Input
Amino acid sequence: MQQALTFADVQSVKHLAKQLKLAHPELPHGKRLDLAAAELLGVRNYHELNRRFQAVIDQYLDSPSGPNAVAHCLYCDFRFAADLKGDQREHRENHERIMEVHEFTGYRPGTYVEREAMKTDGYTKARSPGFLEDRIDGALLILRAWFDRSYHRAIDAGQWRKHPSFETYVAIMVPYIEGVFPELAPSLAQRYGRTPGVIAHGQTNWPLQ
Ligand SMILES: [Zn+2]
Output
């Protein structure tokens, strides 16, 4: 197995294990998982698959050492006590939710640190005395940071499929942008449209359904 394991790989194995119930009704579910893992991914058993998948997840952990250390995942932004089993399980669930969306859509929303960097950069550009186009790029960076937080929240709530696309989100936020960057809002409205009334004024999160 050369390629890094994906969320979809693990799901396929679970799916096949269920199907194998017909051919092997005598086997316990664990054995069928072993068979499916070996057949689809060439690993020895499901335990090995699980161990390798955990390593894929753990590669993003920033784990300071010492007692009571809080681990931080740079991929899904989860913070947890790395030595607590319950916390580990919660991290894995959270991580898998982001991974599923990332694999399905090709998009992973930025973490808090990434979003803050986008905002800092965005405000500097948007307020600069430079070309209109550069200032609009700055506004779009700020909007991207807001969008990512909103999208992340929708993933947590299991509603990411209903969340507006970035383009639609910009149109929704244009009324708010009119107050923050009045000179940039018309260009954004021209390109993305203007959709008032979806997100309350002053808010940046898409309302969960
Ligand atoms: Zn994670």
